[in-house]
Each structure stands twice: as structure tokens, then as C-alpha cells.
Amino acid sequence: MSATLTTALWDLGRGAGVAALVAFTISLVLGIVTRSGRDALGLGRFGLNEVHRTAALTGVGLVAVHLGTLLFDPYAQLRLVDLVFPFLGSYRPLWLGLGTLAVDLLGVITVVSLLRDKVGPRVFKAVHWATYALWPVALMHAIGTGTDAATLWLDGVALGCVAAVAAAVTWRLSPSFDTRGWTRTPRQVAR
Amino acid sequence: MTTRLHVDWTRCDGHGSCAELLPELLGSDEWGFPLSRTGEPEPRVPRQLDDLARRAVSACPLQALRLRESA
Ligand code: SF4
Fold first, then answer.
1. Domain total for chain B?
2. ipTM
3. How far apart are CA A190 and CA A103, in angstroms?
4. Distance B16 CA to ligand 1 centre (A)
5. How would you write the pLDDT of chain A (191 residues) with one tens digit per residue?
6. Ligand 1, from B4, B5, B6, B7: best to mutate by most atoms within 8 Å of Cβ?
7. Residue nearest to atom 2 of ligand 1 (CA)
8. Mutating which of A46, A178, A179, A185 best tests the B interface, going by the most B Cβ atoms within 10 A?
């Protein structure tokens, strides 16, 4: 293989990985907005949900590219087993292992989400909570592994993602999140 | 064969996606919960709205909307 082609795989693999992190960040934030029941961004409530889903599936596609290129990349030296079982790799096993863990989580979440009508809302919702574990694991993998670790542009992207998710989660946890701007009137019980 | 739109009220949380996608059959009450516009409690879905009704069903974030076929 020529030198340019091998670095092309390496570049594509890393680029797809970073793009996937951005896609999952968008999906997570829009998922929280969807859950709030508010019509934000003028997309309509169904529109928000569709963009949330599209962003997530885009991320899944980018992860597939990320795995496919790095599997064939001579630098990364990934083995098939590293795609499934975490922490066995020889190259930065902790950081790579986090990536593998993220892929495992992502696989389960994606399959269950696509089979939403089969599994019903309870299972769908329970498994969807795992995205709150997936995102930080994917983030740590992105920051910790690879040649881009501690480069300014990657730190910038990562910081932006953290800020967006932190803002959305803080809002999610705030008392006004569930009220959709209403005030509840306590029921008056006649005595 | 008639298709009717059924809302599972134990699941619905008044997000209102359905009313946005199917304004012909559903409105929203002031809390965002869907209201039938046809006067029937479970509005009949005319054939030309069939596709849109299916989209509304799949867009409901809580899987509260269903199509019910009856003879
Ligand atoms: S989209 Fe679903 S949850 Fe939202 S109002 Fe309609 S039926 Fe209820």
C-alpha cells in the first residue's frame, strides 16, 4: 500500500470518529429537547424527533466507517476481536477499550431503538437511558486515544460537545423542565 | 374495513406531535393532548390520510398512538 493511501485510511478513520461524536452530541441534545415536549427551533415537535433520530443514525454510520477504516489501517492494528471485546487491544488498551465499550452500547441501543414497535415503550425507554452512559464513554475515547489527543482543534470540538451536553442535562434536571412552562394548580378537595 | 386512530391515554403525555402531523383529524387541547376533530372519540382515518396517519403513529415519542382496524 502506498504511503498516501495508508494515511488516507488513518485520516478518514479519525475524522469519522470525531464526526460521530459531534453527531451523537447533537442527537443527545435534541433528544432532551424532544423529551421536554417543547417546540424549539421552529422544527415542530415531530421535526425535532426526526432530526434527533437522523443525527443518531448518522453517528452510527460514521462509527461504521470509523471501525471499517481502522480495521484495515496498518497503524491502528485493530483486530476483529477489538471491535467487540473491550480492553484486549495492544494499542493504548484503556482508551481503545472505551471505544469498544461504546460500540457495544451503541449496538444494543441502536437495535432496540429500531425495534421500538416490537419491544414496547418500557424496554425502549430503559435502554435509551444507556445513551447517558454511552456519550461520556465515547467522549473519553475520543479525547484519550489517537494522534489527535491534546491537539487544539480536537480539544475545541470536545469542549463544544461537553458544553452543549452539560447545558442540556442541567436543563433536563431543572424543576421547570417537565412543566412546559405551565403552573400546576393543586386539586382542591372539598371537605 | 375502517381504520380508526386510537390514543392510549396511559402513555400519552401531550407532546402534540400527532396533532402537528395530522391536523385533519386531531387538534390539541390547551395542554397539548390530542382531541378528535371529527366528533367521534376515535376518529376514522380516510384512505387518503392513511400514510400520514402511519407517519403520525411512528412519530409519537411515547408510542401512544395506534391504528385500529375494524370490519
Ligand atoms: S404524539 Fe403521542 S404522546 Fe404526543 S400528544 Fe400525540 S399521542 Fe400523545
1. 1
2. 0.77
3. 56
4. 5
5. 455 666 788 888 888 989 999 999 999 999 888 888 777 777 778 888 889 999 999 999 999 999 888 888 777 677 777 777 777 766 677 888 888 899 999 999 999 999 988 898 889 999 999 999 999 999 999 888 766 666 778 888 889 989 888 888 888 888 877 776 566 666 777 66
6. B7
7. B60
8. A46
Question: Which residues partner with B5 through β-bridges?
Answer: B67
Q: Note whether B23 contacts A: Cβ–Cβ < 8 A.
A: no
CA distance B69 to A182: 36
Integer angstrom CA distances of residue B52 from A49, A79, A157, B5, B21: 16, 46, 39, 12, 7
**In the structure, which protein residues have their CB atom closer than 6 angstroms to any atom of ligand 1?**
B 7, 12-18, 33-34, 60, 62, 64-65
- For residue B40, the enclosing domain spans 2-70
**CA pair distance A79, B31, nearest whole angstrom:** 54
pTM of the predicted model as reported, rounded to 2 decimal places:
0.83
Domain with residue B14: its CATH number is 3.30.70.20
